[in-house]
Amino acid sequence: MAQGTVQVTHTGTSRWRRRTGEYASLAAALEAAADGDVLTVAPGTYRENLVVQRAVTLRGPEGSPGSVRIAPVDGVPLTVRASAVVQDLHVEGQDAAAPALLVEEGAPELSDVRVVTRSAAGIEVRGGARPTVRRCTVDNPAGIGIAVLDGGGGVFEECEVVAAGQAGIAVRGGAHPRLERCRIHHASGSGLTATGENSALEAVGCEIYEVRGSGVQVTGRATAHLTDCDVHRTTADGVTLDTDAVLTLADCRIHDIPENAVDLRSRSVLTLTRTTVRQFGRNGLSVWDPGTRVDANQCEIFDSTGDYPAVWVSDGATAVLDSCRVHDVPDALFVLDRGSRADVVDSDLSQVRNTAVSVSDGATAQLDDCRIRDAATGAWFRDHGSGGTLNNCTVDGTQTGVIVTKGADPTIERCTVDSPAEAGFYVSAGGRGTFLNCRVRGSAGYGFHVIDGCRTTLKKCRTERCARGGYEFADGGPDAASGVGPDVEDCTSDESAGLRQPTPAPEPAVQTVSQTPGLLGAIPGQRNTEQEPLVAATQPETPTRTSKDVLGELDALVGLESVKREVRALTDMIEVGRRRQQAGLKAASVKRHLVFTGSPGTGKTTVARLYGEILASLGVLEKGHLVEVSRVDLVGEHIGSTAIRTQEAFDKARGGVLFIDEAYALSPEDSGRDFGKEAIDTLVKLMEDHRDAVVVIVAGYTAEMERFLSVNPGVASRFSRTITFSDYGPEELLRIVEQQAEEHEYRLGPGLAEALLKYFTAIPKGAAFGNGRTARQTFEAMVERHAGRVAQLDEPSTDDLTLLYEEDLPELP
């Protein structure tokens, strides 16, 4: 058989009619062939656009795979419109607007075909075609690997997409293929994607990996069913569902995913059975929006590589976990937002670094017959409207078993907490909750710890071997109404003194037993004697100076003339308003919250402290003390902890000034899912709810603070004015050095003042320039150099010990 020829074996109804012929081109051979004929193609390259319209067999020579190349210069190299058999061919395409191998009709069989192309699609199946494709490979770095469109279907067995410039396999327009033991990798879009109503994808024993996008994407009312499949090493989410998509995963493995292992939203529905999810950078399951639902049965989610909850349910979505295991994760289950719900049955949550179950913002969680082990917090119901039920659950080896705060109202029934380091059940800050037939054993702290006069109900509860006591009830102090507190009925303890009923305790002091504060250290209202305060600031109970005295100290500060005028104008407004009220007249409303802008070291913190003292002297604030915080004090590592930290800082500042330095860091330009927004939202609400209790001052660089206020209108509306702190000039920096010298009993020698002026004029004014801080650092450096010089004298005089000279000046930075 000659190179570049096609041998056609013509068949008929009887043996004697069989004959053969050779043709110089594939087109001529196809024209001569009839149904049932066999076309054997000799090795060579055929620059033809072939169309197979009869049920023939088209194949390359046996024992020479890849020796037949179908490679036209443009158009579709091979089109199949019949139930033909195509095997052992090498198809090459170059047309970006057309597929390399197009199947339009019939039920052809394609086997051992290799498609190497830079086309719109490597293999495209459309219309009523139902091919069987076996052991075929597609290498198409310019487009889709395999596209099944417009009602097409078929079965793909042991096929491989080795490269794709877009999706590896795309299904749309009502198509419905089945994949068996296929491999899809090195795609620049999703590995598998199905989109559009009536589109369906079934995959068994497949592997999707090394994908620059989502491993599996199902959208727009499409459905998919994956069994015994592997999805791993993607750059985006492992599995993405959106807009009424339906997906079933059975016996699948999703791992090594830098983003969410599975993300679904917009009324999508996911069913997982015996599926493992591991090594994910964000959420293992991320479930969003009303109508979106996950049902997981006998699944395992573990080994998170990021700092996000393993299961995230928000915006009204629902998640059901039945007989599942979640372990070795930062947080196990977070349920947020009104309408969101999680139902967990007969499941294990263990080796959780922070909180196993967190319920907030009005969400609901129900846990039945579950086991929580080795977590910082077993379950935390965080705020008003958040609730649900824990029924017949065990919590073992936690810092705190169950926390209820801020109006949350769960029902905890027949649950046992073993060996907590701090408390079995902890209720504070207006939390409620009903505890029925619950047990705490071996607590290193209290069994049940209820503070702030919370209206908690305890019935038929029992504590055993609790180091600090079985039950501790503490009143909330001056804000708690009389007669409030827990309702306790038929509760027992193994303590010899029996159960102590709730009694007012205006100054409760709680000391945790563990060496580290744990999560309880972050809850408002608890006094932890081991925890450092946010700022080392004195908090005088009553002002010791008049406003004139404090304004005198302000006037004595170097420079800051415009700042002094602004503060004095505010003070005058407040003072006159107070006097008008005393005279029975209306007083103008003065918003006391301020924005301080300017470079570091310009006196913003000092002025904030004096401003608080002035307001206290005028009776506007109760104490006038200053609490200084920054982003690190307000923003936690996971959802929920930020609100608690911000509340704690606000409570510390109650009656005084909360000074937030570098406040713009709470709203970075590339914020994404940054938790700084939670701090801002919490702060805005607290400023509204307690408008007369705390004055808030936000401070930072001028440009950054302008951006911060522009992107957070809710914050901007709550501040009355912005005060700008200008940089210090050389004369003002000299004056600061002179004050420092006078305070520390030094004197400036002849010529040093002039030298300092030149020094401060020449010093670089870049990002490292610290204004007043630079002046103080300069003085300290001079004192250090002076000490090195004078220490060499045997008997230094008083002048030697006090005079600073030009030679003591440090080098310019």
Automatic annotation (TrEMBL):
<feature type="region of interest" description="Disordered">
    <location>
        <begin position="475"/>
        <end position="546"/>
    </location>
</feature>
<dbReference type="InterPro" id="IPR011050">
    <property type="entry name" value="Pectin_lyase_fold/virulence"/>
</dbReference>
<dbReference type="Pfam" id="PF13229">
    <property type="entry name" value="Beta_helix"/>
</dbReference>
<dbReference type="InterPro" id="IPR041627">
    <property type="entry name" value="AAA_lid_6"/>
</dbReference>
<dbReference type="InterPro" id="IPR006633">
    <property type="entry name" value="Carb-bd_sugar_hydrolysis-dom"/>
</dbReference>
<keyword id="KW-0067">ATP-binding</keyword>
<dbReference type="GO" id="GO:0005524">
    <property type="term" value="F:ATP binding"/>
</dbReference>
<dbReference type="InterPro" id="IPR039448">
    <property type="entry name" value="Beta_helix"/>
</dbReference>
<dbReference type="InterPro" id="IPR050773">
    <property type="entry name" value="CbxX/CfxQ_RuBisCO_ESX"/>
</dbReference>
<feature type="domain" description="AAA+ ATPase">
    <location>
        <begin position="590"/>
        <end position="729"/>
    </location>
</feature>
<dbReference type="InterPro" id="IPR000641">
    <property type="entry name" value="CbxX/CfxQ"/>
</dbReference>
<keyword id="KW-0677">Repeat</keyword>
<keyword id="KW-0547">Nucleotide-binding</keyword>
<dbReference type="InterPro" id="IPR012334">
    <property type="entry name" value="Pectin_lyas_fold"/>
</dbReference>
<dbReference type="GO" id="GO:0016887">
    <property type="term" value="F:ATP hydrolysis activity"/>
</dbReference>
<protein>
    <submittedName>
        <fullName>Sporulation protein</fullName>
    </submittedName>
</protein>
<dbReference type="InterPro" id="IPR027417">
    <property type="entry name" value="P-loop_NTPase"/>
</dbReference>
<dbReference type="Pfam" id="PF00004">
    <property type="entry name" value="AAA"/>
</dbReference>
<dbReference type="InterPro" id="IPR006626">
    <property type="entry name" value="PbH1"/>
</dbReference>
<comment type="similarity">
    <text>Belongs to the CbxX/CfxQ family.</text>
</comment>
<feature type="domain" description="Carbohydrate-binding/sugar hydrolysis">
    <location>
        <begin position="41"/>
        <end position="172"/>
    </location>
</feature>
<feature type="domain" description="Carbohydrate-binding/sugar hydrolysis">
    <location>
        <begin position="313"/>
        <end position="474"/>
    </location>
</feature>
<dbReference type="InterPro" id="IPR003593">
    <property type="entry name" value="AAA+_ATPase"/>
</dbReference>
<dbReference type="Pfam" id="PF17866">
    <property type="entry name" value="AAA_lid_6"/>
</dbReference>
<dbReference type="InterPro" id="IPR003959">
    <property type="entry name" value="ATPase_AAA_core"/>
</dbReference>
